[in-house]
Amino acid sequence: MGDEVRSVATMAEDAIPATMAEDAIPPWRVASVSEKCKIVFRMPTKAIPRKAQRAKSAMSDEHKQALAIGREESRAVRRYLEALEAHKPKRGRKRTAESIQSRLEQIDDRMATADPLTRVHLAQERFNLEAELASKGDTVDIQALEDDFVVAARGYGERKGIGYAAWRAAGVDASVLRRAGIPRTRS
User: Where in the chain does DSSP place strands (E)?
Assistant: First the structure.
């Protein structure tokens, strides 16, 4: 086995082109030879000079302020759009806390006699109903979010290239866009 290892290592060293200088390190080199004749190649150990690094310039106060304004506008737009999405009216009758509680009681009654597959479905429905019941108490001040959106939307939209139609497609009401000063154009 030792002869096989030596012959593989010798073949790797013999693969160095004859045009390379004596002191040059080839781009490959046998790093180690394991007992299973696995050859690991690695790059040369000489340091390759890096490009000259450019000195970092300090950010101006105006630039820092512009970045902060952009973050605030982005945050206001995101919060308003998420609130719109979360409070989008759903089809059908609205569920009250009492109807959710009665359905939870029905699930408890059926769980004892249900087969395993039905039990899994009932357990998931229970989790969904409990989450819905917990979120019933959560109230979001949509008016405050809308006011923040109105302040931020025009600048954000101009910077990001978002037009009237895109805002409408996202679910923003036309009256809100009018208050924000976003024109209804056909460009």
Answer: 30-33, 39-41
SS3 23: coil
pTM above 0.85, yes or no: no
Render pLDDT for 46-99 as a digit per residue (tens, 0 to 9).
Answer: 665 666 566 677 888 899 998 999 999 999 999 999 988 887 777 777 888 899
Q: What is the DSSP letter of 30?
A: E
Which amino acid type is present at position 28?
W
Cα(30)–Cα(166) distance, rounded to whole angstroms? 59
| Residues contacting 185, CB < 8 A, separation 6+ | 163, 164
Alpha-carbon distance 76 to 157, whole Å? 12
Tokens read off for 113: 């006699």
Instruction: Output Rg (C-alpha) for the chain, integer angstroms.
Output: 33
pLDDT tens per residue across span 120-158: 999 999 999 998 888 776 677 888 999 999 999 999 999
d(CA 45, CA 30): 12
Buried residues in 57-78 as b, exposed as e (16+ CB within 10 A): eeeeeeeeeeeeeeeebeebbe
At residue 133, φ and ψ (nearest 5 deg) are: -65, -40
DSSP H or E stretch at residue 32: strand 30-33
